[in-house]
User: Fold these one by one.
Assistant:
Number 1:
Amino acid sequence: MPFLDHLEELRWRILKSLLGVAIAFVFTFWLCTASGLDVIGIATKPIQQYMVEGKHLVYTNPIEPFTLLLQAAGVLAVVLAFPVVGYQVWAFLSPALSKSERKVLIPVLIAATLLFLAGIAMSVFVFVPVTMGLMQKLPHASIDAMLTVSEYFGFLFAVSLAFGAMFELPILILTLTAMGLVTPKFLTKYRRHAIVATLIVCEIVTPGDFIISTLMLWIPVYGLYELSIIVSRFVYRARLKREREAEISGGLAG
């Protein structure tokens, strides 16, 4: 297919993906506004035990609740429309892939989704409650907390995105291994460098100065790095096998 035809197909795949997200957004917006589902209440459950009894989050901007519902509907729409987006990615890439690569692509997309959702789940149900608990233990008897909707959900969305992105580390490593840019030996040799690098990145993406918060993200991320080394060995061996088969086929053809 000529290059311009590839661009045209890519354009249509993107438009279909956006259409899927738009349709999902209509449904999730209805779910957040007209269905009676208290999305804000569900999202604040992780911190309710640390709030003064009878107190709720406050807002200072009249349209802030509506903006928040739009954001929540958008996030839910992206999650709901992922099968459509994933299929469009698959349909665009599959003609250029071999039969074995096609078999691998779908599990990789599913694994990437599950890892991203696992990161979000850990941030919402573990990181945020623990961080709030640590804040409650600090000596601040002379001041009162007034947590606003925008501040809490801005914190929640930022942390969830950071955790979800960091949990994609195995997918990144496996992709680099499949492309021949890294090897299991390379990953093992520079393990100590990976410890420092992941710790620095986790310190950057986690808000606040609590070392415990950083470690809460770093421990699972580095665990995923070690798991990636094990899995990358299988990817590396499969790549070497394909290269040997290609050399043998080329030699026979010659």
Note: Residues 136 and 213 are 14 Å apart (CA to CA).
Number 2:
Amino acid sequence: MSKKIVIAIGGNSLITDPKHVSVPAQYEAAYLTAQNMAPLLTSQHKLAIVHGNGPQVGFILRRAELAREHLHMVPLDSCVADTQGALGYNIQTAVRNVLGGLHQTRNVTTVVTEVLVDADDPSFHSPSKPIGGFMEEAEAREHEHADGWTVIEDSGRGWRRVVPSPRPREILEMEVIRQLVESGTVTIAAGGGGIPVVRDERNHYAGVEAVIDKDLAASLLARRLDADVFLISTAVPKVSLYYGTPDQQDLEEISVAEARRYIAEGHFGRGSMLPKIEAMIEFVEATGREGVITDPAHLAAAAAGGAGTRIVP
């Protein structure tokens, strides 16, 4: 039976080794992810893929910092647009090559996607979205004082820059994406959460200095597409309580009510699992369907209900 599936793939799907982050290395990571999705790609399922871009935006900003004596800085909305093109190119090429190796063909394309946000979203006053790589505290504090960055300690993994992350309200290319997905085209859309734009009283659009959470944008896309399944790929095969401790407890299935309770108890890090759980809650509540969080190797099994952590009504 054909299903409509939205898959959100995170940074681990595009950078598998933080010591090897060249463009060819990122393509190899995308190819490995496409191989993991092969059972879905070769099925009759209708697929939309949303990718993360946090490290890649960090690379663009770092290049701009190093070249600022000679070239202009790059605003965040342009960074997202750049990564949508470059990462979409990597992913769609990887998908085509995996299909070709299996002697199959399928249309695949990337849509440069703008996502409407509210100009008065509270996040513009309280930046919270981590971008770029991890730093030692001393380096982070230097950027804080010299460059005006807002920095935080991120879930025990190091220090990172944080920027405004307004909630996604509307996907401007939604009807184009819908037509592509319904036609059977593997559609890469809302990359990096989408290019954040605001609308003024004249109904004109303009980009803003922010990034949108990829998982929340993918949840919005899944709801607007009326997806049958929403998958989020991350670094671990299952969501856990007390992660990384001797008391770690992997979760097979949780209800929305249980997910909210675990959030209140502080089990999920803001820069890691929390936005994924929040994205799943929004999808499950809106559709009454299930969502699954797992790692890239278990995506196909998760779509069939045999892996990952299932979030249910």
Note: The longest helix spans residues 76-101.
Number 3:
Amino acid sequence: MRIDDIRVTTLVFAYPEQDRFRYAGGRCTHRVTSLIEVVADDGTVGIGSAYSHPRLVEIVVADQLLPLLRGEAIDDVRRLWRAMYAGTRWFGRKGAVMSAIGAVEVALWDLLGKQLGLPVHRLLGGDGVRSVPAYASALLWADHLPDLTPEAERHRNNGFRRMKMRLGRSSDYDLAALDAVISGAGSDAEVIVDGSMRYTVDQARLLSTELARRKVFWFEEPLQPEDIDGFVALRPQSAVPVAAGENEFGVQGFAELLRSDAVDIVQPDVSRCGGIGEARAVAELAARAGKRFAPHSWSDAIAVMANAHVVASMPNGITVEIDQSRNPFVDQLLVSPLTVRDGLLNLPDAPGLGIELRREVVERYRLPSDATPPAGTYSDMIFGGERLHQIAPYG
């Protein structure tokens, strides 16, 4: 089996007015993801996705990665990854290039699994587990605090026993919002707090004491991702585990976090950090440092499943993140939707990633090849002149 073509499809979704949500980046109006399909010479297709600027992903794949890979045998995915990385190192290493490389690599793992008749987690050395822990990721900033309680109840009723909320709005808001979520989640549920990169070290340290009293599972990204020294200062003082990594790329980036003992939990995302191989290498590095691994995922169901395969292959893998913010790329994209029961995400038995795209959903949200993403706030990305900083500093 050899590589014949690579297709990139950008999907864009505009939230209805009533479903737009507030968070530390402002008001989310749209979602975006880039689907990658690697086509083999026998017609078999492997699927991946990138969570990055879609036009940059398209350029990198069409102009750099496809010419490098066309005609290559699909027998050693890490060898192909190294070729892509070496061919783009001068302008890559972090950001959109690494995300594009990772998306192609995920599709290559999917193809290799289909060729060998094995699920990806078995190719990675997993012991054949059929499910992995998963958590509901939503509970954004609420203008009416009591609304958070029934939302948490809904996630629990949908099979989740762990859920993540966003804090960092204000000192008056944060603990009241957390208490509202805990009330709906139930006494035996585990609540994760995302700090939205909004705190100083002292603010995060003080808040962590209150989080510990409420048995919060981890404290995610309390500081700006570039503030490694701040994480180094905070981690030993935090009363709950500190997690970070969704804004990091490649093993080298995570090695810096782990060498400096800046976090307790690393959060690579296969759709951002460089793919399945990089995420697993990060997890192995974390295991050697006595740290845990819990991948980030906030783009689509392909990324969720790819992350889940990595978690299933690693003993220090904790859980996978499943966006519950009415994102159709998570809820509707797959023929067999993501299924969570008793806090566990089912892993299919089928070879590769074990997923199939719903083509009608792809066509519904496909962005024409000659179009640019509409102006708006796309959760982690902003297009079309929207103001980047719309929220007052934390206080």
Note: The chain has a mean pLDDT of 96.
Number 4:
Amino acid sequence: MTEPCDLSATEARALIGRRALSPVELLESCIGRIEATDHAINAMVARDFERARKAAREAEAAVMQGERLGALHGLPVGIKDLTETAGLRTTFGSPLYRDHVPAQDETIVADLRGAGAIVIGKTNTPEWGAGANTRNAVYGATGNPHDPTKSAAGSSGGSAAALAVGQVPIASGSDMGGSLRNPAAFCGVVGFRPSPGVVPSAKRGLGWSPLSTEGPMARNVRDLCLLFSAMVADYREDPLAATIHGRHVRRPGEFYPPPRVDLATLRVAITPDFGFAPTENHIREVFAEKTGLFRHFFAQAEDATPDCGGADEAFAILRAKNFLASHLEKTRKTPDLVGPNVRANVEEGLRYTAEDVARAEVLHTNYYRRWQHFYSRFDIVLSPCMTISPRPWRELYPAEIDGKPTKSYFHWLALPYAVTLATHPAVALPVGRDRNGMPFGLQIVGPRGGDAFVLGVAAALEAALAGDPRTARPVPDIAKLKAAPPIASMPEFLGFA
């Protein structure tokens, strides 16, 4: 019998609306799953069970009284620990904020609560989201739910792991170099990087930078779209939240339910590496096998890639500029309380000149324009999400891939940051397992501004692949996790490196 925590978000929300499932029952099932599995993976690191129980009782009363219910009414949600939550510890994975309890919700959390979601706790992240391995000196490492000795990726690793095991039906994340897509791929769930500004933020230090954005995570595309519909907004404080005076440019109804897309009408480009990413041979071969199973679904499927010349240089400089804006002061004043990934980016940023930044901005602009030319021939681009199969979380980042050294601690993220630079929306969709038995994530990249369209493509492809065990979403062994030893007992669990 399916436990309530294993229901999809859309199923649970429908049952709540029909008075066939109590928000209290759903919440208690999620709490039970957290208590049964989190010792093995360390995903839900700060918990707000008592306030969540109060909110669930209030949500149940609203249902019984026939009140108008929000899109997420009664659904427990995990909030990434980079996002401030009123009255609930928010550490950013940093010892500097070990005891930080915000007085107010960030706007995205307030919006989710306003739609009826119930915050159950905070999900783990690397320090300040730096790096794609979720471990820090406050809460320790998050293990992959398919093998807790391996990385859940990051920086939204806690959210992805919590979703995979049914601790929550929906969770928040954020993305610069793939921080929504990377952990979704490693853990076997769905992550979506929206176009910059669609999920607005009043928090970005560099308000005009399109590199970082918040977004939704879920176990399937329809659930993700439900959550996304509650995140879409227009804040004056965000310069990228483009608007037309007196008009609503973005409407939640555009994204949920996902639009119907006929895969047989699509022109699709397929690339294992965007021409430059250090994709390991294993992943190249698995990607070829997976796409070989469904490339005939499309009107046209061609091995092709946008011109990504200059991507490594542009991303390195622009990323470092963002880190300087956010972390220079703390790195100078309290270097012993700042981890190696953040320090590396700050130190790198200090070496760049104004000429370097200007060159990176020009590279970025030309890069974007080349992508637009490429999309005049194609509707969608498919690639692997990640360059490697999950490795042990003790490895802070891959120093080599197939025996070749990586250029930096984030070079192995070239597949997702190729898309970040283009500013196109992208979905990470689980497509079976790789040869190591770990989840394999497919990256589906839409056209400029094509958020609803790419979600529709992902939903159609997910439905077409669900019946084949070679391409269906992989599910963790919950019984095995319940019996697993605590991840906290493993060597090197707590710390930066």
Note: The longest helix spans residues 311-333.
